Amino acid sequence: MHSLVVHNVSFTYDETIILKDVDFEINANDFTAIIGPSGCGKSTLLRLLAGLSQPDTGRIISGDREIIGPGLDRAVVFQDYSLFPWMSCGENIILALSQSSPSLKRRQARPLAEEYLNMVGLEGEFDKLPGELSGGMKQRAAIARSFAINAPVLLMDEPFGALDAITRARLQDLLLDMWQTGGNAGKTVVFVTHDVEEALILANRILIMGVNPGRIVKNIEVTLPRPRSRQKSLGDADFQRLRGEVLRELDQVILMQMNSSSGNDGGGI
Amino acid sequence: MSNFNKRQARQETRTGIIGALIIAVAMVSVYEIATDLTGLLDSLLFPGLTKILPELVNSSPKLFKGLLSSLGLLAPSYALALLLGVSLGLATGLNRKLKIALMPLFRALSPIPPTMLIPYAIAVLPTFWLSSAFIIFAGAFWPILMGTIHGVVLMEPRWLDNARCLGLKGPKLIWRVILPGAMPAIFAGAGMALLFSFILLTVAEMFGAKSGLGFFIQYYADFADYGKVLAGMLFTSGLIIAIMVSFDWLQAKMLHWTRNR
């Protein structure tokens, strides 16, 4: 039962305001996508939620505790680098298991790790090094690891951003399945992406971010019925309507960005 | 695909070995022609294989004793340099204050040739063994230290983020993430350190020792017995090649993951 509260958060890096007065709440067990053009600070926001950076002002609360650093209540999947390349996939998952349940014996950890690998369709890949796997398989293993931590919150930073369209679609289905079968015991997911369709297929709610400074400009409820599948959602009339709505908002954000930057250039002459 | 890569790698290794053998055979043949067959070279300074090979066999008990003596000097000195260099390197690389305080000192001291320390090592340390061990240690320590620091400082920052997200701390963080992540740079430093220590070992043995391979070569050079000198040189080169091949093997094994990352 972990909700996330982001309260008036601002973040500055090298005197550039990356995030300004970001304020939103994410309900426990909800799936939220954060979408925005590049440079809007969506990855920075995820880093703050992960506890890898601290906001300059404002507070972030996970469950009933303020986030002051990374914690095992939040699992993180990065676009790349989620696995340590010198350990086999299985060892990566065992390392995560040993962190979340320190009393677990190695003898018990191995079959458990294999179970998590099976769950993401990586049967028999326990001993493969991450470098020996394709990008899609690597992200499957990263998802397996994030579920092995058994954290109530799952933070994902463009996890499928580097994959080809077909692999991406497969992994969206996998994530959808894994999250939906979690039922009421499911996870609170924050999913950063720049892909509108991906956000609509996966999330219950989409937060659209604006640029200069990064902030939340719009909150869109994705009312598509659950349980969803990618195939079913794509054919839904509501899907097309929502897609148009999100794209219009994003266009506006980009337009504003162009206006403000051309204004800045003009000021310099 | 990985099977194909392995097969290709194996084929490249085989080609490499064959190429090296051809060059070695050619060089030995040229030498043999210039010595035993035609006598172009001074036969005192450059005895032919007909003289070197019997010397190699005859001297082998002495050479093996020298080998043990040399390794008895090299191994502990290098091991201590490895232990202290990696530990201090990890501590310096991980601690910002330590890094700021010590890096200028390390940068200034590391390029000083250890051979400059020889007079003092001999004057201050009570035995020949200790002073030679110290010189070899001094040569091996700096590259290992600097390699380790670079490995830690230049490590992929995402690996550290990742480790923090998993809540890894203390010895587990060092053993499972920092050390393996810094391993490519540590190996680069350790390889250079190994080359330095060979040079310093033979230098030390040629000028002060009563045993060891360097001593063997210098001892017979003083008697102008160049058959034995060349036998000693061949034997020592063989040893160094054997150690370097083992080192490369270990490196390939431990850095297996860097190949197709």
Account of the 3D structure:
The complex is a heterodimer of chains A (about 270) and B (about 260). Chain A has helices at about 40-50, 90-100, 105-120, 135-150, 165-180, 195-200, 230-235, 235-269, and strands at about 5-15, 15-25, 30-35, 55-60, 65, 75, 155, 190-195, 205-210, 215-220. With about 270 residues, chain A is α/β, with parallel strands linked by helices. In chain A, the strands form 2 sheets. Chain A has a 6-stranded mixed sheet with strand order 6-7-8-3-9-10, with helices on both faces. A 4-stranded antiparallel sheet of chain A has the order 2-1-4-5, covered by helices on one side. In chain A, a hairpin with a 2-residue loop joins β4 and β5 (about 65). Chain B has 2 domains: about 1-40; about 50-260, Orthogonal Bundle (MetI-like fold), CATH 1.10.3720.10. Chain B is flat and about 70 Å long.
Going across the major beta sheet of chain A, what is the strand order?
A: 6-7-8-3-9-10
Query: Could you estimate the helical fraction of the residues of chain A in percent?
Result: 40-55%
Number of helices of chain A: 8
**Poorly predicted residue ranges of chain A:** 263-269
Mean pLDDT of chain B: 93
- Spell out the helices and strands of chain B N to C: HHHHHHHHHH
Radius of gyration of chain B: 23 Å
Number of strands of chain B: 0
**Are there runs of chain B of 5+ residues with pLDDT below 50, and where?**
none
Total number of distinct structural domains of chain B: 2
Classify the secondary structure makeup of chain B into a structural class.
Answer: mainly alpha
Strand content of chain B: under 5%
CATH class of the largest domain in chain B: Mainly Alpha
Give the helix proportion of chain B (percent range): over 70%
Let me know the average pLDDT of chain A.
90
CATH superfamily of the largest domain in chain B: MetI-like
Quick one: how many beta strands of chain A? Answer: 10
Radius of gyration of chain A: 19 Å
Largest sheet of chain B: none
Q: How much of the polypeptide of chain A forms β-strand, as a percent range?
A: 15-25%
